[in-house]
Amino acid sequence: MDWETKNVEFNQTIKKLFHGETTMERVAAASHLGYLKDKRATNSLAKVLKSEKDPIVINRIIEAMGEIKDVKATMLIVDVLKKELELPEDQQDMQRIFLIVESLMKIGDKRALEHLGILLDSCDSEIRSLTEEAFNCIDPEWKSNIKKS
To answer: Which pLDDT score, from 0 to 100, does residue 141 have?
Structure first.
């Protein structure tokens, strides 16, 4: 696909992300932006993330940010994690937490480790395991680095 065709496709997808009338249109747009892996989408995804109310769209945006792997998305995703962890445990969206950890692992930004640390003590063994995997992926020396500090 040449640059011009890709650019037209990118712009149409951004338009659907912002103005899609149905949840499925916005979900498809967010997923497609992740598939395109174009870092230009990060700012648009961030803007929509701040105003989007539909949990499915929010999850696809987080997932797309992970696929794009732009470090600019790290703290935006961390903010979503913080909000999720403020909720009582029985109201937390476990799927969203998994997506957050996976996306932060894909991005690989060490700034996320401080915020992921709380999940190492999670009651959910799958969350703990995935979080430890994320730590190992982002910073293979994390255990020795903690001991040093």
So the answer is: 82
